[in-house]
What does this fold into?
Amino acid sequence: MKKTFLILLIVISCAISAQAKNGGTTDGAFTTLMLSATNVERYIETLKSNTTAFKATGATDAGVCITRSGNEYDGQMMVWSAFPSVQAALEGSLKYDPQQASPAFARLRDAKYGVTWKPLKPFRLDPGYERVQRVIVQTSKLQDFVAAMTAFEEAVIDAGNDFFVGIFVPLGGGTHEAKTLMVRAITPDASSHGKIFDDYFDGKAPWASEWAALQAVGYEVISDNFEECEQTYSTN
It folds into this structure.
């Protein structure tokens, strides 16, 4: 356990000192509430018109992600909130109980579970169309995985794509998130994401060698989804 925590600290330290081509940072943390919405669009509109919960927790930014592919249940989505630190995220989670939500919210969704996330490499807050994978990486290969993912990300960007990747370690996610990292590969829209896949399968991807190097590190994919994300709240 001590070894795992030490390696995580080393990875975070390396990421903080890195020059991020994606314009991101490892500052801050995120919380997510996984839920099932009975009416997704109506629930999102309610969130946009009633920001009381976000203000109560001290979130700087917030939004939603709707699962568009790989759904495990009807109405699968999540609400995310951004905080300036893990400390602020954990404190914020004590200021709002999703199980005690007002009827305006409660009747529109079934809350599943919450979790706090810390980025392990520079990440920019710019929601879009996102491929989301839960992966298991051996502790001894964690640094190599982050480095290889960063090199892959930079190569895809150099090829002219608006693309970036986040890697997040879960904190307090229960059995749902206990053994995995969350990897989010993000483009502005589905068309941009599809083009990257087409370039690879057509043999036109100049970043193919970086992708092969990432696969060579070795990791196990536990789940694979596409999500459509947007920001609905900001203090700026």
Summary: The longest helix spans residues 142-158. The two ends are 39 Å apart (CA to CA). The first strand starts at residue 29 and ends at 37. The chain is about 35% helix and 30% strand.
